[in-house]
Amino acid sequence: xxxxxxxxxxTEWDLSAFSSREQVLEAVRNLRYKGGNTFTGLAxxxxxxxxxxxxxxxxxxxxxxxxxxxxxKSQDDANLAAQTLKNLGIEIFAIGVxxxxxxxxxxxxxxxxxxxVYNVLDFPLLSSLVGKLTRVLCTRIKERSHKGSAGSAVKDxxxxxxxxxxxxxxxxxxxxxxxxxxxxxPPLRPPKKYRVVYYPSxxxxxxxxxxxxxxxxxxxxxxxxxxxxLVSVIPVYDTALGDALRGVTSTLPLSSPRSLRxxxxxxxxxxxxWKAAQGATHYLVLCSAAPDGAED
Length: 296
Hints:
Blueprint: E1 2-4, E2 10-13, H1 21-29, H2 40-51, E3 65-70, H3 78-87, E4 91-97, H4 102-108, H5 113-116, E5 117-120, H6 130-149, E6 168-173, E7 180-185, E8 193-200, E9 207-212, E10 217-220, E11 228-236, E12 245-250, E13 258-263, E14 271-275
Parallel strand pairs: 3-4, 4-5
Antiparallel strand pairs: 1-2, 6-7, 7-10, 8-9, 8-11, 11-12, 13-14
Helix pairs in contact: 2-3
Domain VWFA: 1-133
Keywords: Extracellular matrix, Secreted
Organism: Melanocharis versteri (Fan-tailed berrypecker)
């Protein structure tokens, strides 16, 4: 399976999409590069929630491996998301190109780092990694499969467990230009914590609030006015993530001054008056002389 990401991760194809090497190679040839930001944490969460579920082709008995390919430093918390995957027994290989942050790669990747972290100066040099990486991946899968069959505890990525592990009925209320209130119905089995992730739909830094599992509402503040926000409520258990609850809403525009009036005109002055804009602390008054070209 393959997903691309910038500020919004996008699944290109699921694990169950193709059944032959030729089909996969053809899909790679037709792939179009997705430019943009580098929200690696959001991408790893997307892979866990969307791509490693049984309905996307993930087999419960199979080893779970994620190969992260990045050419920049993450603009959100990649380590937190990576830790969630690793806690679920998912192994992460991190490959950096050009401006990737090696310290971050080493934080995100699974142990042993000498087998899971790679860094090259430019994209054409990735071809030099293919042989070694293929051997390492195949060896790791065999080792982990053997441990699992020998009775070791290998955690599986949870299946979609519906209302038992997933919240429902997201309600977004009290929306202002700077804030909104979220509330939801908790799952039948209360989670250990909730991760509430929110960010502007047209690109922007994702922000996150972590709540205790007994809480089922939150006030989001310091938002940007007149902006569409995507919000996700993700329940976190000791060894699983429930399905995220998602919503979208827009903050209100800032209020404007109204009823502009001009009075007390003289040869070099005039008086302006208006009805106040709610919440405004200052006003900027711009005056341009007509016709164009005269001094402001």
